[in-house]
Design a protein that fits this description.
By secondary structure, this protein is an alpha+beta fold. The protein has four domains: about 80 residues, no CATH class; about 70 residues, no CATH class; about 110 residues; about 180 residues, Orthogonal Bundle (hpI Integrase, Chain A). The protein contains 17 helices and seven strands. The strands form two sheets. It has a four-stranded antiparallel sheet, with helices on one face.
Length: about 450
């Protein structure tokens, strides 16, 4: 140590010495690391690290010495990791242990970040490098982002989200906590059903997010839910990624951030199938690779106007084949508490035409869809089929077709509503009990006969 500096150790502020009145932080270099910290100018081994605290005030020095001590202890600890270990977790740890720490990022992340964020990322690494000498392979790999960031599924992002934001359920009891987190889980499950459960959140771009929004709009048009529900699904996903990206992937663009809210007007109601389209569907069904259950759902939907979800969750108790007039019951069962809003939507529908033969093949219902994701599964199974055969229309168009056929075959308004599950409003409300199955059966048969007279 040069004698031109007057210095003394300070007992009131540990790990410091006073040089010409200024406090300096001082820490010993572990023996096994002294070679690494050799002075580049003199070539001598360094036994100590000195760092100015830029203060003559002991109280300020005491505040600054803690972070300095923590930083260098972490640095020395990281030096014990093998130099050739460059796994993602190790590089994360290494990046945080530099004297000037930074958040690890894969090299490809620099290209996807905004210009300002990219400049900040480069600046952090430049500063970190200037504070170190004789970098080993692992430290260089951390600086340049040599190891690709592992895929992050929405499930993994959600787990991390809960770690980052425990305050969101602060003060809530276990039941309230479960209910609170459940809204996020349902949004994740819905995204997985539509887009796949192995999608990497770090690779979701604006196009993918927009595609998901389009699928929500499509389902809105089919009456599956209201616009508010669709917007909440997107909002919960946006919140999850916002927090995870903010902490673990700073500068990463959140693809759900700029999505526009869905409005009721965004969803065009699916137009009814024309009779020409129904014939095309029948022809393509014969060679389709869909399961027999999915094909049967289509046939029953064609002849009854019932929705795919209504049919997918039929159980054996809902299927009545040995009656004088075979029928299915759309309502509460072991798989659901109600159909949509309940009430008029719960109904009995006679099986006529090919619907009866289709249901005879599955007297216990379409059991492959008897699980929480069954309705989404049946929609996925049919969506590609309808997209090719009848672009812009799907299974819900059977419902609108049946409504039109019943009207044009001069069906009584109340009977039509009882078959389709629509609610009559105002002074046209019908009082009394349910219509007889015979009345409904005759109305359906007449409607289907009327369809044969149509040329389009």
């Amino acid at each position: 140590m040069s004698t031109k500096f007057k210095m003394k150790a300070n007992k009131k502020v540990p790990h410091t010495v006073i040089r010409n009145g200024i406090y300096y932080f001082r820490i010993a270099v572990p023996k096994h690391l002294r070679e690494k910290y050799r002075d580049p100018e003199t070539g001598k081994l360094r036994t100590q690290i000195w760092q100015t605290l830029d203060t003559i005030d002991p109280d300020e020095a005491l505040l600054k010495v803690g972070p300095a001590l923590s930083k260098w202890r972490q640095q020395f600890k990281s030096e014990t990791i093998p130099a050739d270990e460059i796994s993602y977790p190790i590089l994360q740890q290494t990046s945080a242990s530099f004297a000037a720490p930074f958040t690890y990022a894969y090299a490809g992340d620099f290209l996807s970040a905004s210009i300002s964020n990219s400049i900040n990322m480069y600046s952090e690494r430049y500063e970190a490098k200037n504070n170190m000498r004789n970098l080993n392979k692992r430290q260089v790999a951390a600086l340049v982002g040599a190891t690709e960031t592992p895929a992050l599924t929405f499930k993994g992002a959600f787990d991390r989200f809960k770690q980052i934001c425990p305050d969101k359920v602060l003060g809530k009891d276990p039941l309230e906590t479960k209910r609170f987190w459940r809204r996020y889980e349902e949004a994740i499950e819905d995204f997985a059903e539509e887009m796949g459960d192995d999608v990497d959140c770090l690779k979701i771009d604006n196009a993918t997010a927009t595609e998901y929004r389009s699928k929500l709009v499509e389902r809105l048009g089919e009456g599956e839910f209201k616009a508010d529900s669709a917007n909440k699904k997107m909002m919960w996903l946006k919140i999850i990624l916002h927090e995870v990206f903010r902490v673990d992937h700073p500068g990463k663009h959140n693809p759900f951030k700029d999505l526009k809210n869905v409005k009721e007007d965004d969803a065009e109601k699916r137009p009814p199938f024309t009779e020409a389209e129904v014939k095309a569907i029948r022809a393509k069904l014969e060679t389709s690779g869909m399961s027999d259950e999915a094909k049967a759902v289509i046939l029953v939907g064609e002849c009854t106007g019932a929705g795919a979800k209504e049919l997918a969750w039929l159980t054996a108790s809902d299927i009545h084949l040995d009656c004088e007039i075979p029928y299915i019951s759309i309502g509460k069962n072991a798989l659901r508490k109600k159909v949509k809003t309940g009430g008029d939507r719960h109904r009995n529908i006679p099986l006529v035409g090919d619907a009866l033969e289709a249901m005879k093949q599955f007297p216990d219902g379409f059991t492959r869809f008897h699980h929480p994701r069954g309705p989404r599964q049946i929609n996925r199974a049919m969506s590609e089929f309808f997209r090719k055969v009848t672009p812009g229309k799907g299974h819900y168009s059977f419902r609108h077709r049946m409504d039109d056929l019943l009207k044009n075959s001069r069906c009584d308004l109340g009977v039509k509503a009882a078959i389709t599950g629509h609610k009559l409003k105002g002074h046209v409300t019908y009082y009394g009990t349910e219509y007889d199955l015979q009345v409904k059966k005759e109305a359906l048969e007449k409607a289907l006969e009327h369809a044969k007279t149509k040329t389009n």
